[in-house]
Amino acid sequence: MTVAIVWFRRDLRVHDNPLLAAAQRYDEVLPLFIIDEKITEGRRASAARNRFIAGCLEDLDLALRRLRSRLLVLCGEPAHQLRAIASDLRVEAVLWSGDVSPYSRARDRRVHAALRELGVRAIEHPPNHVVDVGQIETGAAKPYQMHSPFHRRSLTMPRRPLLPAPRRLPPPPDLAGLSVLRQHPRLLLETLVRHPPSPHPLATPAEPPAPIAQPGETAARRALSRWLSSGLHRYAHGSQTLAEGATSRLSPHLRFGCLSALELEQRALQHPHPSAQAWVRQLSWRDFFAHVLLHSPGNLSLEHQAQLRGMEWEEHPERLVAWQQGITGFPIVDAAMRQLARTGWMPNRARLIVGSFLTKDLQIDWRQGEEWFSRLLLDGDPAQNNGNWQWIASVGTDPAPVARRLYNPTLQSQRHDPDGLYIRRWVPELSAVPLSALHQPSQMSECQQRRSGCWIGRDYPAPIVDHPTQRALALERYRRSLPPPPLEAASPPRPR
Fold first, then answer.
1. Any idea which of 209-213, 403-407, 423-427, 433-437 has the lowest mean pLDDT?
2. Quick one: which of 188, 259, 319, 428 could link to 253 by a disulfide (CB 3.0–4.6 Å)?
3. Cα end-to-end distance, the chain, whole Å
4. In what order do the strands lie in the sheet with 72-75?
5. Residue of 239 and 87 predicted with greater confidence
6. Whole-model pTM?
């Protein structure tokens, strides 16, 4: 009688799940999820994400029960828990999908060592990406530093076949007398995340939170079907706008593996429309940032560009709080930050705008923004969050002139929210401000303020900085931090 453990982590689904396909060869299979308190209760823990995980686990358990199995959820240090269960059940193998973050990789090394001592096979599958980001490399056998060549190479990489949901799983083993249950009497077999950490007070809205996505594979597949049938065809032209429905909002489902990245690519490419190619390219960015973090784990604390690691950032606690609360006096920034606090999400264009504003206008360390996002985002993935923040702060991969990623928030607002619908939704105190003044309400006349019932400095703040001034300061700060360009080589003498 062969027994295997399928250790679910960021692959909370039954469709296109290589772990479940590989588990079919065993006589008994124990589906397991371990609540790692270093993540769920750690410094960057997120109450919204913990609630989302709980919903995903409930949905996964229901799906497994339809396959005549069930999900065991435990809490504790994974290597310890897996060692105890594997010993008690005489397990032959533990199967899981890997990850690229430094913490996950260190945790997996501890698991490998614990299982090796027991003689249990540790079978680690690639993470939930379109391609195996650990196997892709340049012609010089080095990691990629820029997305475009990475994307071109990834298009040539082989894809495994998509896997249907299994019709049935091998039955779970008898758990009676399992030592981890005796050692932890407070835990039930179906324990979920019952007590998530309290959200940061600045991120706690007066109204109850309204997540942008419902948890679990069932909701994720419905959302995917809606997007492919009614949203994808508009993506190429609308992805940079802040309009409702312009982007897929599938990132939380990808974060926890409720959807397969490979399935998303393959199903999107079935649509003969330029928007499908544009959307697939965005999936490739997700793979790219995972590839970068895998090969440069120090990026979680240091700038990817070594020459910028000594850059001096400003200390402005009051400005940081204004940015976090969405009271900067720049409507597009404030709308995006309030949406983040209310829903745990914001469109990618909004992320770029608020990231540029924090690092270039306020000149505050990008790590402050990365940490804030990691605590509030439902899709707060370490690789994606870090890669995006370093990119917009001009300290990461794909180096470009600083001015190219130094956004004017007013112009960005006019370009990407031309009708002001996004601002009016998330900054209600500006709802009666005329569109001509909405993107820069501080320029309203006294008469306009009276008519709109919005007095600058009382009902809505004046801008906390002057963008042209801050732009000049930012360009100078980056110039000082970068090494001087090399001297031009002397021209060779001309033959006489």
1. 209-213
2. 259
3. 88
4. 72-75, 28-35, 3-8, 93-97, 121-125
5. 87
6. 0.90
Give the pLDDT band of residue 167 (cuts 50, 70, 90).
very high
Question: Hey, which residues does 33 pair with through a beta bridge?
Answer: 8, 73
Give the three-class secondary structure for 118: helix
Number of neighbours of residue 222 by Cβ within 10 angstroms: 12
Which residues, listed in sequence order, are joined to residue 34 by a DSSP beta bridge?
Answer: 74
DSSP state letter for 170: P
Dihedral over Cα of 404, 407, 410, 415: its sign: positive
Nearest to 40 by CA among 28, 56, 52, 24: 52
Q: Are 261 and 15 in contact (CB under 8 A)?
A: no
* Sign of the alpha-carbon torsion through 93, 97, 102, 104: negative
**Nearest partner of 69 among 37, 28, 26, 121, judged by Cα:** 28
| Res. 490: pLDDT tops 80 | no
Contact 186/226 with Cβ under 8 angstroms? Answer: no
Is the distance from CB of 319 to CB of 354 less than 8 angstroms?
Answer: no
Q: Write out the DSSP string of 61-73.
A: HHHHHHTT---EE
What tokens does 341 get? 């606090």
Long-range CB contacts (within 8 A, 24+) of 391-394: 392/351, 392/352, 392/355, 392/356, 392/359, 392/366, 393/355, 393/359, 393/366, 394/308, 394/359, 394/478
- Residue reference for tokens 């309009």: 243
Distance between CA atoms of residues 24 and 487, nearest Å:
64
* Residue in 172, 163, 184, 128 with CA at minimum distance from that of residue 28: 172
What is the structure's pLDDT at 485?
Answer: 59
Question: Strand pairing partners for 31?
Answer: 6
Whole-angstrom distance, CA of residue 467 vs CA of residue 384:
28
Q: Which two tokens stand for residue 204?
A: 């706690």
Q: Which residues of 333-344 are buried (b: 16+ CB within 10 A; e: fewer)?
A: bbbbbbbbbbbb
Q: Could you give phi then psi for residue 125, rounded to 5 degrees?
A: -95, 160
297 by DSSP, 3-state: which?
A: helix
Q: Using CA atoms, how far apart are residues 342 and 352, in angstroms rounded to an integer?
A: 19
Angle at 250 between CA 133 and CA 295, to 5 degrees: 20
Contact 171, 3 (CB under 8 A): no
pLDDT at 47 over 90: no
Report yes or no: 341 and 326 within 8 Å, Cβ to Cβ.
yes
Confidence (pLDDT) at 20: 98
How many C-beta atoms surround the C-beta of residue 292 within 10 A?
27
The SS3 assignment for 258 reads coil
Which three-class secondary structure state does DSSP give residue 224? helix
* Element of type H or E holding 97: strand 93-97
Whole-number mean pLDDT of the chain?
A: 89
Q: Strand ranges (DSSP E) for 243-302?
A: none
What pLDDT, in 10s, does the model give residues 107-148? 999 999 999 999 999 999 999 999 999 999 999 999 999 999
